[in-house]
Amino acid sequence: MIEAAVDVLTTRYAYALMFVVMGIGMYMMIASENLVKKLIGVNLFQTAIFLFFVAVAYVEGGSAPIVPADPNPGELAMASPLPHVIVLTAIVVGIALTAVGLALIVRIYAEYGTLREDTLREVRADE
């Protein structure tokens, strides 16, 4: 069990980093009362997912997926471009999500004067 953990930390450190960043993002989303901190937690969680996709797509000794004129099927180790394309698309979606979230946060602050979730619940219950 200990040997497996050491093996993961020394050879597959991207997965360990992914779990750490994912845990921090999840903790920020759950434990924080501030809406901006929750949004930062969502961004950290997304970054962990991006790291996971890139780590899974890594091919040891892989090359760009361009087939040479005289391919030797036994020697071709190519990396799939699909995970990278998915990550690029997800980054664009994440930026749009962050922009909409920040716009909503600015509007909530202008309307209620606070960004704390518990205070917002109390104010909404009084209305």
Automatic annotation (TrEMBL):
Major subcellular location class: membrane
The keyword Hydrolase appears for this protein: no
Membrane topology of this protein: Multi-pass membrane protein
Gene3D superfamilies: 1.10.287.3510
Superkingdom per UniProt: Archaea
TM region(s), chain numbering: 12-30, 42-61, 81-106
Compartment list: Membrane
Keywords annotated in UniProt: Membrane, Transmembrane, Transmembrane helix, Ubiquinone
NCBIfam families assigned to the protein according to its UniProt record, in alphabetical order: PRK07375.1-6, PRK07375.2-3
Name listed for the protein in its UniProt record: NADH-ubiquinone oxidoreductase chain 4L
Source organism: Natronorubrum bangense JCM 10635
